[in-house]
Amino acid sequence: MPITIRDVREHELDSVVAVNNAAGPSILPMDLAKARFFWEHAEYFRVVEQDGLVSGFLVALGPNAPHDSPNFLWFRERYPDFLYIDRIVIARPRRGGGRGRAFYADIQSFAEVRRPLLACEVFLQTGNDPALLFHGQFGFREVGQNVMGGSGIRASMLLKEMCSYPFVAETYGGKLPDAAWLKARALPGRQASLATGT
Fold it and tell me: The N-acetyltransferase domain covers which part of the protein (predicted)?
């Protein structure tokens, strides 16, 4: 059956938490409060659906989000404008089917008209080389490393320049055309800007 990538719906936050917490040790645990934080603040919060079930998700935040992740803060201290991928999770039975690649193609399309940089990290632990290679294939490069306080987990901090962004910013001056595929996610409680999602 085909897959669909679409914005998450509020009633699916429990499913997002379940997929996240069944993913294994390479993904930090998440509770419903964290999922709700993402619901309220993430510029990009999409799920992959197949056969009526959520089988993965990707969450990304802009630089002004009130996020306390040490890796997010690492990027914010160094770069004024970016879209930060906090996490991508694919349910174990659905891995290897191209969902991660589909998400990264989708978020790149989303980001390149809004932000100059796409940021993320990969934990540097044994067996995580496939994740580093995956990001390398998408054009990410390491710009530093960060050791997360408390956990001692070391992360490779990765950036990708959005090549289309300068043209879009110069041509449209912060206001994208009114087209369905360019609309930003409407954040609960406030109107999302088409240009920046803030």
Answer: 3-160
